Amino acid sequence: MEHSNNVTEFVLLGLTQDPEGQKALSVIFLLIYIVTMVGNLLIVVTVLASPSLASPMYFFLVHLSLIDAVYSTAISPKLIINLVCGQKTISFPACMGQLFLEHLFGGAEVFLLVAMAYDRYVAICKPLHYITMMNRQVCILLLVVAWVGGFVHSVVQLLFVYSLPFCGPNVIDHFICDMYPLLELACTDTYLVGLTVVANGGVICMLILIFLLISYGVILSSLKTHTQEGRRKALSTCGSHIAVVVLFFVPCISMYVRPVSNFPIDKFITVVYTVITPMLNPLIYTLRNSEMKNAMKKLWCKN
C-alpha cells in the first residue's frame, strides 16, 4: 500500500487545558516518575547484589522492573514536558516511535507476567522438579519469548497505523500517541484495522488474563497439601503477582477489547497502566515480600 500522508506533526491536547491544573499535574507526574525510577532500579540493584535472591522468580522480577522503568520513560518525560510547556506538538516519526515503544514494552510485560506465573506454578505445584524445569536456559528462553512477543505485537500495531493516510486534522485528544486516537484521525475507513487492533490487543489480553487467573487458582488450590509456613509464603508471592496482573490487564482490556472509539475517561485509564502501575509494582513486590525486604536491609545497612 502506498503511504500517503500530509500530516508532519500531531498536537496532543493532554489531560487538561487548565493552566493551573497543568502545573499541578506536572509536579504530581514528576514525583511519580522519580518514585517509579528509584523503586524499580532499587529492586534491580538489590537483586543483582544479593546472592540470596538468585532464584528464577527474582530473575524475572529484575526484568519486570527494567521494563517498567523504560516503559515509564517512554511515556512520562514527554507528558511532563507537555504539561510544563505550552507547545504540545509531536512530530510524525516521534509519534510512531512512541507508539512502537509503548506497545513493545507493554507487550513484553504481558508475556513476562505469563512467564512469572509459570515459574510460580512449577515452584509450588512441582517443587521437586523446580531446579531442572526452571534452569538458567529455560529462564533466558522465556525472557526471549517475552521480548519477541512484545516486538511482534508492536510491529503489527505500528505497520497498520503507519500505512494509513493522514490528511488532517492533526489534533489528538490524548496525552500520548495511541492506537484509537490515531485511527480516528485517518482519512480512510479503519473498521477492519480496528478489528485487527482489537484482536491483537484486547482479545489477547483478555485470554491471557483468564489463563493467568485460572493458573493462580490451580496454584492456590494446591496449597492444601503444604505446611502453614509454605502456604503463607506462597500466598504472599502469589498475592503480589495477582495484584500486578490485575492492575496491568484490567485497564488494558477496558481500552482495547472494544471497537474503535474514544471517551474522555480513556486518558485517565491510560494513566493507570502507563504511569501508575509501573510505580506501584516495586511497592507491591517489596512490601509483601519478606525476602526482598531483608535483602534490602542487609544491602543498605552494609553500605
Commentary on this structure:
The chain is mostly helical and 303 residues long. It is 75% helix and 3% strand. The protein has helices at 19-49, 56-84, 92-125, 130-133, 136-162, 179-185, 191-221, 228-256, 266-287, 290-302; strands spanning 9-12, 89-91, 171-172. Helix 2 (56-84) packs antiparallel against helix 9 and helix 8 runs antiparallel to helix 9 (266-287). It is globular and about 65 Å long. The termini are far apart.
Q: What key phrases describe this protein's structure?
A:
303 residues; three-stranded mixed beta sheet; 3% strand; 10 helices; single chain; mainly alpha
| Structural category | mainly alpha
Give the strand tally: 3
- Low-pLDDT segments: none
Can you give the helix content as a percent range? over 70%
Strand order of the largest sheet: 2-1-3
Mean pLDDT across residues: 88
The number of helical elements comes to 10
Question: Order of SSEs, N→C?
Answer: EHHEHHHEHHHHH
Strand content: under 5%
Report how far apart the termini are.
59 Å
Largest sheet: 3 strands, mixed
Radius of gyration computed on alpha carbons: 21 Å
The general outline is globular
